[in-house]
Amino acid sequence: MPPDQRKPLWLIPNLLSLDAPLVAVAWLYIFAKTWRVDYHPWEAYVSLALVVWVIYVADRLLDASIHDGSSVRLEARHVFHRKHQSRFLMGAALAATAALVMVIAYMSFAIYHYVFMGGLMVAGFFGLSLLSSQDENEAPHAKNVLAGASFAYGTAMMAHVYLPELGIYQMLVSREFICFGVLCILNISAIDLWQHASHSTDLEVKASDELALTLPLVLLGAASLFFAVLDHEMATRPFFYAILTGAALLHILNRERSRFSMDALRVLADVALLVPFLVYLAATH
Asked: Residue range 200-205: average pLDDT?
């Protein structure tokens, strides 16, 4: 491949859709430790990573198919998936089969109480993907909200399912799930808001996009700090330190985004959700 067509190494995980599974596995560990899950087998981590990878591959192939031949410029990840479509389809089929086998053979029976809602959320996400506008100047807010909520639900679910004394409702109303869900929604929305602002010459639109991300990030950071201080037993304090770190890093990226390309911002947005894992480990040792 000619040098000018080679992709930088730091972009490879994004091109292969490996970034999201890595984030999901890292936060699954955080949820499991925070909620003090005594028994948490490796199958939970592997099956979650496989399912997330399959969903992301399917989403990128779908986007590439929808926008193929349209005026919308495809991003590097979509071009890469379309170029290697047959390999991704085969890999996704194998990964989905492996995940299904592990869920049926090894996972707790309680998972079946959770997967229905998760399946509805994922189906709704793909439905919105099919119905969403192809206008690159319009941010798909509803799709981003559902995508972030689905990601948070699937990640937290794989830890909560091993707490048989608790049900789905207890997970959905927990501070940990709500804060992580908001962080995921803001992480996914950030890229579209940055892209939307870059395509506009209207200063009011740029300011509106800036505020649409800055205000909720500040509120999330304040809430996570409040919940951390409120926990006198320090059982969940490291978790909220991790949330605070993620919100702070996204805020920094939001302020400094003009220094980076969109591909770099996508990778750095994922890094902003991985660094909190290190913060969590440091806070618990």
From this structure: 69
Report whether 99 contacts 54 (CB < 8 A).
Answer: yes
Domain assignment present for residue 149? The answer is: yes
Structural domain span for residue 199? 8-283
Are 107 and 125 a contacting pair, CB within 8 Å?
no
**Is residue 1 situated within a structural domain?**
no
Enumerate the H helices of the chain as residue ranges: 12-15, 19-34, 42-67, 76-83, 85-106, 112-131, 141-160, 168-172, 175-199, 203-230, 237-256, 262-283
Reported confidence tier of residue 196, pLDDT bands at 50, 70, 90: confident
Residue 94 CA to residue 18 CA, distance in Å, equals 16
- Structural domain tally of the chain? 1
Let me know if residue 122 belongs to a domain: yes
pLDDT-based confidence at residue 1 (cuts at 50, 70, 90): very low
Q: Which residue has the higher pLDDT, 133 or 156?
A: 156
